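Pipeline run #58 for the internal structure catalog. This entry was flagged by the ingest filter as a single-chain record with no existing model, so it goes straight to prediction. Upstream metadata was stripped on purpose; only the residue string is passed forward. Reviewer on rotation: M.T. Logging verbosity set to normal.
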Amino acid sequence: MVNGHRQSAIESRDCHLRDMILFCGRPRLFPTPRDRLMMYFLNLKRPGLMAGFFLLGFTSPLSLASTGSQDSALLETLLKNGVINQEQFASLSKASGQLGSNELIDILAKNGAITKDQAKNLGSSTASADSSKVGGVKMVNADTKKDEGYVHLNEKGLEFGSQDGNFKAKIGGRVQVDSQVNWNDKNAPPGTDLSNGVGLRRARLFSEGLFFGDYEYRFEYDFVRNNGGTQGITDAFVKYIHFKPIAITIGQQNEGKSLDSYMSNNYLTFIERSLPNNAFIEQGSNSKYQLGLTAETFEEVFDLPYFLRGGITTESLGAPGPGNSSDNTVGGINNTGGTNGTATNANRNGFSGNTSYQLVGRGVLVPFKDEEGNLLHTGLWGSGRVLNHNYNQNGSLRTGGWSYQSQPDTDVDRTNWINTGNLTNTKCVGGTYNSATGVCAGGHNVVQHQANSVNMFGAELAGAYGPFHTTSEFMMAQVNGYNYSSADLLQGFYVSGGWFITGETRPYDEKKGTWNRLIPRSNFLSGDGWGAWEVATRYDLMDMNTKHINGGAIDIGTLALNWYMTPRIRFMTNWVHVFATNTSQALKASGSKCNFPAQGASASIGCFNGLSPNVWETAVRIDF
């Protein structure tokens, strides 16, 4: 009766995926080691792996001679999803048709995809007498209740969902700690010394998953950004994926500029992103997490992978500084004379005027990529943002504007050494501007700069060859508006290169057009190796001095040593040297004086002119 049921399922081609793997194609009482391994991942329901297994399940009934191609498809899926690395992929490809062998099982255990106990069970060559359980993994027949769920807790977080795959959820997070020791200039002006210390860089919890089969979601909160306030929200979006590979996302999300900023900080080579990334994308009012609507797709044309993404975004939830019109910060005065003493409702528009908005897009093409993981990445991105302003009755600025700024590749001390200030501003000629009354003392003239829009452009070039990798980007921002000209062009670039001493090839994520998580050849914590070791160097430069903007210029060199104990635990150390700082325009504009700053305030930008400190940074990165 059982065999009859199985044969009927084969003939009708209408059996469930698990039945396909177990029974479709050839009847057998006990699954092979390969089937037991497949059943483990199916019950685990890991996001991203399912497509490969569906492919294997549907091709199995069609031809028993297709085992080799099925194995190749499985290996490619494991590689793309970061379960195995490039070297392991090449080794396993030579043993095509034997994916149930101990070699694959041992590799999965070593990479943390399965536990050692599970590997032992999956690798057993003796079929269990109980056909409902094989290798310690429960086999699910066609008549299994559809509402049966699963729960898994491992180093990748807490995962649970429905057996039909339409509902999934995962809870995870990351903890990152930085330290900084500085060698400051001996004759530095007052208030310009960088401070030593240790800081909690990020402490995030997230929930992500799938509902009704077509909707992905993600919500993440960073307790370091703003504990208890809306500034702590990074991701808060829903993504519609029914028309794969096209996806549509609505909510707060990464706006998608730049390879370095679109990539997760879990995968960065250096402790700090580059100067242009910090100034143009990461810092202050121009936070990369934006409310908006975007669409994206990834595919291949003539076997060349490409990625496209674009949309319209506005401002971040509760982001500080000029440019966020909805920033009702502590002490802000509303139109009835009251104050916002707690900065609650910082994500409300209130009395602050209209919010700004931007159009943004990014395109990536990989003109070369081989089976060894060697590749060449090219990319372009651009954006145009329209700014809005709110003025007092006398014409002085109340809220709005925009700004760019960056610290010298440091985080424990986040003092900005280059800073445009608000690009929409009011100042007096021949007198003192009274910010309380909004007028110039003595009736002197008021000269205004108003930034009406900013256009940004970026170009990306990256590649990997064996254990070597390189990344470079160029970025610029054009400021447009009253008392600005085409000469007001801010620009920066960086060039970096790295070498994995232990021989790994840097993984690449075609679905995002960024680098991906590194999987060491051998993990340190499992006791069978020393993890992965990497050395890297970078040169970056940022210039924000123009005809009408005195933001400063700085160039920096960085040396890095990274130890990847496992794919999710790494130690980083950077030596940072500031080659030159040019804030002479800002110094001249302030009267060439650098007075000791007020308590709680940093020195003015001009005071950093000519400084060239050294910084030693260390960091711990853990995610789950």
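catalog note: The two ends are 46 Å apart (CA to CA).
catalog note: The chain is about 15% helix and 40% strand.
status: ready for reviewer M.T.
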